[in-house]
Amino acid sequence: MIELLKVPSLTTIQDLGRFGYQKLGIPVSGVMDDYSARLVNYLVGNDDNAPLIEFVLQGPTMKFYSSTVFAVAGEADIYLNGVKIEPWQSYWAKRGDVLEVDVLKRGVYGYIAFAGGIKCEKILGSCATYLRAKLGGALKAGDKLKLGYAILTKKEGKALPDEFKPEYPNESEIRVILGPQLEHFTKEGIETFLSSPYEVTPNSDRMGYRLEGPKIEHSEKGADIITDAIPLGAIQVPANGKPIIMLADRQTTGGYAKIAVVAKVDVPKVAQTRAGGKLRFKAIRVEESQELLRKRETLLRNIKALLEGKLRAYKIKALGEEFVVFTEV
Amino acid sequence: MQFKPAGDSALVIIFGNEIDERINKKVHAVAEAIEKASPEWLIEIVPTYTSVYVYYDPLKIGYSEVVEAVKPFLNAEPKKEKARIIEIPTVYGGEFGPDIEFVAEYNGLSVDDIIEIHSKPLYRIYMLGFTPGFAYLGGMDERIATPRLEKPRLKVPAGSVGIAGKQTGIYPLKSPGGWRLIGRTPLKLFDANREPPTLLQPGNYIKFVPISEEEFWEIYKKEWGEER
């Protein structure tokens, strides 16, 4: 068990999301950055969907009441009993130890995973917290979290090789699939969207990121559509012409025209961009986007096997570029 | 009918471009047919007014294959069985519906007229969305249409029945809101511990039934397990 001592606001328990209930108006929720969350779970020997702590900009402080292995995702100063430790590595914690996670130096969302995952009461099949409907609640000081059972031996001391650590740039190119309501925009409007930088505004949260930038022109059909569904990463453009990227806690349906949907592999990049950071959009075909996703999945599977000691990774240089090659042990 | 990708993990099947009962019935018939077949690549289905969103796992199937895979389901016909009608006991006016007098005045009617006109029709549930358990209803009499509040309320109690423009609806959760509130139901529209978690289902019909304050608190106690 662990007890939370200091808890910044919006610290929650999340997993990969609550699926199957969107037709009843219940949002998917789940982690904002599934790449980081899955990797940090692998570092402690967990599967992809193990419940973990998600924090925003500043991490919590906690005390361990029993031994466990944990890891932190996110670039922050981290202290175990006052001694500095590294992110993206798994450590042993014993009864009485105190873990402090300071402010993130880059990115927005950080994660703390524990071997065996956090035990939580699943609501509609998931531990994902959705604050607006009180599905789970924000964590607060004094909360005690139970951990799931896991064999702890040989789980500590695992480190994620640098080349797999996500970057949190303040300017990113975000690949998108145009549509599904492209006819609600003029040619110029689409051109503006694809050629201008858009800045993430402070008015952004787990529901969506509001962007500021050149106004996107609607066609004579206007900004409103007959309300339909909102997939993860959908980019809505209301009448003011300023795009909103819909993220984990998005409402399931909405009435603004969607100019594009972010490629799933680039959703973590969006989520980790701070207010003031800039995004540029690049259109790709749906098949390309699915190919990128398959590649990322293969990479994640390989990293998991690498951390489990089932694969080795080698860096090779070819044509001036560095590649990582995985081989069996 | 049209097929479009909505990103790399969703296919939209578009059946029309107007809010129409016939189109919406087709939407629900096709959504149900795909869901019932539950192909292994399916993540979930969201039927809307005029479209079906098919959320799929792109690691298991590609976009053009999904389009082919859903085609056999497109001839699914709406079932002929009698529609389910859910009665919504509602107290109109007073503290439960603080805007009912404004709605009456705005439309040149009496408060009793509003209650009668609002509680008369069978409202079809075209879709659920927005927040857990919120139903998009069709069929409100335009004689009681009223614009939204200029400044939304910060707290609208769960169960509040409101009017916004030409539509009417019920707030499932306590939330901010800009609808003109004309009444409130003691029923719980969303309960995560219930299966299904929402009282209303797309394709059902609802009927508002005027009740007294005493009846409201009696039902409220049963539904919410608290006095008020």
TrEMBL record, chain A:
Start and end residues of each Carboxyltransferase domain: 23-299
Molecular function terms from GO: ATP binding; hydrolase activity; lyase activity
Pfam hit, one: CT_A_B
Entry keyword Nucleotide-binding: yes
Parts forming coiled coils: none
Keyword terms, alphabetized: ATP-binding, Hydrolase, Lyase, Nucleotide-binding
InterPro entries, per database record: CT_A_B (IPR003778), Cyclophilin-like_dom_sf (IPR029000), PxpC (IPR052708)
Entry superkingdom: Archaea
PANTHER family listed in its UniProt record: 5-OXOPROLINASE SUBUNIT C
Name this protein carries in UniProt: Urea amidolyase
Organism: Palaeococcus pacificus DY20341
TrEMBL record, chain B:
InterPro entries to which the protein is assigned, alphabetical: CT_C_D, Cyclophilin-like_dom_sf, PxpB
Sample GO molecular function, one term: ATP binding
A Pfam family it matches: CT_C_D
Tagged with keyword Hydrolase: yes
Domain Carboxyltransferase stretches: 1-200
Keywords attached to this entry: ATP-binding, Hydrolase, Nucleotide-binding
Gene3D superfamilies: 3.30.1360.40, Cyclophilin-like
Name of this chain's protein: Allophanate hydrolase
